[in-house]
């Protein structure tokens, strides 16, 4: 009997026009996890989870090719074939500076925090460097999104304790994330054009905005010839931002079978700037906002996925919180903030593991949504690399050894379905170099020489 086969574009059709896309099934032919090595990835996503983890509940058992997930990673079993658990690395660049600040500043830069408690990373973050390769002629150079951000001591404002993204030019300024899900949806999808044939005539208001930007651009170019070297560098950086804004205005995105606006979620009761009213010790609770974190988080991930599927950008970063995470977890019946369970109230591993397990459930949602997007014979996840990380490894000690890193996707021939453990705690800068290589960037180092190492073996 001939073996039953399904098209990779098969749908489940119901009454009327309802149709549900299918994930990859064995009946669709050879596994989509078999990928050609050396084909550069197209999209890069970073996901920050605060507070490290309970290593005894996080680290897999079993073998490299047959890892067994414990409590914390167990929710990710449905996408295990898409994962590479990277164990044993050291966040060596973060051994100096404030414990949490150095960690969040360093995990994407491979550079130390400089300038004391008020200083930031001494280099660009990998997402911003890759954006120059992956986001050419796109609506957005990159997107930075965050849920329940800038709690505790930062009081809703940009601070070294909550910054992970840094510009790709000296002085490597920190980039604040976007917080309001309603504003983000309107910006990304509010003007999404229906695909009705030829591109409609440009909106005259948009055209006027473009002409204004051109006019400002020319004025500044004329001015630059009269400036000194330092001022000219600052001006060039400013002009780059103007060009990025102009690009976001001129790029018109249309709906397709792949690209469509995600359902707009009612987030009434969620205050994206709740951090402005936070207390240093986390004693002020915003229960209404905290209770909506799971819903808002999923909404943010839906927008993240569609921004990539619509080719609006090639780079997105998601922060689930800052390194203090001084918000409560009502849906887990945990009334204290994350930092309290880490060490402010004495290390409480049961509660920390419960929080980390919930984060794994959210990571599962993101990866499954990416795997549902058909990019033409392969999925959005297949052509992406997703990098999950934190600022420390162990909550009660602030250790930077054995960092809980995880990669997902198939970009660049990333070999997933594995757990790779590196002996002797090599610098995580080597992992950053490996990620660059997955995107066709052949560099052999990244970050200051004191911390940089060559690409890790056994990634592809």
Structure commentary:
- A hairpin with a 4-residue loop joins strand 4 and strand 5 (67-68).
- The chain has 460 residues and is of the alpha/beta class.
- It is built from eleven helices and eleven strands.
- The protein has two domains: 40-196 and 259-438, Alkaline Phosphatase, subunit A; 201-251.
- The chain has a seven-stranded mixed beta sheet, sandwiched between helices. It has a two-stranded antiparallel sheet with strand order 1-2. Strands 4-5 form a two-stranded antiparallel sheet.
Compact description:
The protein is α/β, with parallel strands linked by helices and 460 residues long. It folds into 2 domains: 40-196 and 259-438, 3-Layer(aba) Sandwich (Alkaline Phosphatase, subunit A), CATH 3.40.720; 201-251.
CATH topology of the largest domain: Alkaline Phosphatase, subunit A
The beta-strand count equals 11
Biggest pleated-sheet summary: 7 strands, mixed
Which class do the helix and strand fractions yield?
A: alpha/beta
Contiguous runs where pLDDT drops below 50 for at least 5 residues: 15-21, 30-38, 199-213
Oligomeric nature of the chains: single chain
Give the helix level as a range of percent. Answer: 25-40%
The SSE order reads EEEHEEEHHEHHHHHEHHEEEH
What is the straight-line distance between the termini? 38 Å
* Number of helical regions: 11
Number of domains: 2
**If classified by CATH, what would the architecture of the largest domain be?**
3-Layer(aba) Sandwich
């Amino acid at each position: 009997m001939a073996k039953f086969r399904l098209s990779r574009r098969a749908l489940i059709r119901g009454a009327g026009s309802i149709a549900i896309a299918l994930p990859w099934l064995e009946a669709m032919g050879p596994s989509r996890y078999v990928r050609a090595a050396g084909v550069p990835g197209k999209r890069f996503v970073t996901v920050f989870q605060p507070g490290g983890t309970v290593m005894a509940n996080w680290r897999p058992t079993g073998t490299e090719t047959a890892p067994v997930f414990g409590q914390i990673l167990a929710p990710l079993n449905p996408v295990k074939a898409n994962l590479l658990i990277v164990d044993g690395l050291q966040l060596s660049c973060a051994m100096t500076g404030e414990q949490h600040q150095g960690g969040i500043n360093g995990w994407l830069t491979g550079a130390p925090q400089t300038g004391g408690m008020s200083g930031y990373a001494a280099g660009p973050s990998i997402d911003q460097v890759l954006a120059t390769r992956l986001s050419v002629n796109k609506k957005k150079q990159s997107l930075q999104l965050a849920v329940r951000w800038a709690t505790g001591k930062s009081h809703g404002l940009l601070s070294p304790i909550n910054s992970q993204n840094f510009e790709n030019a000296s002085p490597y300024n920190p980039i604040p994330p976007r917080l309001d899900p309603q504003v983000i949806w309107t910006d990304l999808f509010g003007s999404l054009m229906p695909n009705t044939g030829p591109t409609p005539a440009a909106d005259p208001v948009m055209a006027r905005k473009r002409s204004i930007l051109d006019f400002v651009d020319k004025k500044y170019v004329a001015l630059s010839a009269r400036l000194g070297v330092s001022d000219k560098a600052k001006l060039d950086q400013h002009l780059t931002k103007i060009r990025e804004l102009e690009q976001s205005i001129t790029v018109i995105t249309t709906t397709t079978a792949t690209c469509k606006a995600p359902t707009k979620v009612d987030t009434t009761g969620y205050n994206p700037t709740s951090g402005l009213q936070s207390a240093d010790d986390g004693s002020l609770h915003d229960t209404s906002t905290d209770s909506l974190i799971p819903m808002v988080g999923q909404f943010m991930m839906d927008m993240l996925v569609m921004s990539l599927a619509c080719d609006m950008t090639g780079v997105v970063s998601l922060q689930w919180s800052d390194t203090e995470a001084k918000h409560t977890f009502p849906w887990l019946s945990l009334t204290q903030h994350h930092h309290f369970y880490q060490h402010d109230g004495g290390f409480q591993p049961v509660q920390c593991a419960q929080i980390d397990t919930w984060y794994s459930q959210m990571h599962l949602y993101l990866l499954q949504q990416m795997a549902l997007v058909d990019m033409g014979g392969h999925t959005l996840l297949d052509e992406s690399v997703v990098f999950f990380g934190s600022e420390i490894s162990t909550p009660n000690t602030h250790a930077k050894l054995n960092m809980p890193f995880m990669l997902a996707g198939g970009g660049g021939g990333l070999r997933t379905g594995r757990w790779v453990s590196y002996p002797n705690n090599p610098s995580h800068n080597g992992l950053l170099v490996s990620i660059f290589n997955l995107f066709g960037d052949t560099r052999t180092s990244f970050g200051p020489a004191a911390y940089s190492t060559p690409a890790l073996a056994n990634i592809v």
